[in-house]
Amino acid sequence: MLSRRLIRIKTFKVLFSYELSGAGSLDIAQKELYTSFEECRKLYYFMFNICSFIIRIAEDRIETLKNKFHPTQQEANPNYKFVNNGFVKFLGEQAEFRKICEKQDLGWAEYDVFLKRLYSSISSSDYYREYMDSEESSFAQDCKLFKRIFEEEFEDNEMLEKILEERSIYWTDDLAYVLNLIIWDIDSISKKKRFNYPDLFINEDDRDYAERLLRAAILNYDDYMKLITENLANWDSDRLVLTDADLIVLGLAEAVTFPEIPLKVTINEYVEISKYYSTPNSRIFVNGLLDKLIQQKVSSGEIVKTGRGLQDGETKN
User: Fold this and answer.
1) Is pTM beyond 0.85 here?
2) Which residue in 37, 52, 189, 266 is a FRET match for 303, CA 20 to 30 A apart?
3) Position 77 confidence tier, pLDDT thresholds 50, 70, 90
């Protein structure tokens, strides 16, 4: 489930918190890292679970309009295509999925106002009207509709962001990644009619990578920080941004600890993360200093890359 990019981001956040607090232990930091991983999977189930709650809002809306004192002909004879959506029925038949959501309290019942606004946005969209007006009735079409909902309705949604912030301190930054994963999985469900219960890691190499990266960064933090401050040209060390420093520490830890990861991949990944989690000038600073320090360690023999292309970024990340 977790990409290497997301593992790097979460490791960076744990390292930053660990060093900022000035307390704790490696074991505590590792537990915090795994908690953040598990929370990402919980968000995946939470967002998938919204589908059935949207349908309930639609059903309530239909019943309200039908029971008006003088309903229109359309209100008295509603189109039930959306509330009978086959994709949502499929989700409702997944006993393990329902069990996970109930056990972890991943329901949406308390967010009635948000759900009503969400349904209003969906039902006023062109893609919804096209779906409702179409004579086609298929599982693939039903999946496609909810794929569009996840593509169109949740990113940059301020009300949703507030809900996620209230539910978990980990969730807001994970939303875009989880939405993309859900969109991909809806495509898979459309073809295979099988729900994906994601493993936390794509493979055991990623589990090993996460554990060793954090450990290497924490155990070597003081040495790497000393190296950073010694190589600050025309820069006051007191003004060194901690986020930049921690990204460089992680980059050094990765370059030294994982001989199979190309140096360009390591540098590019932490430069990319700096664009979102540090200052506007961090990209240039992290790129320049991390590259300089890595080259020093290559020259000293502390970093040894094995395999064709590993020094120029042509292979495994």
Assistant:
1) yes
2) 37
3) confident
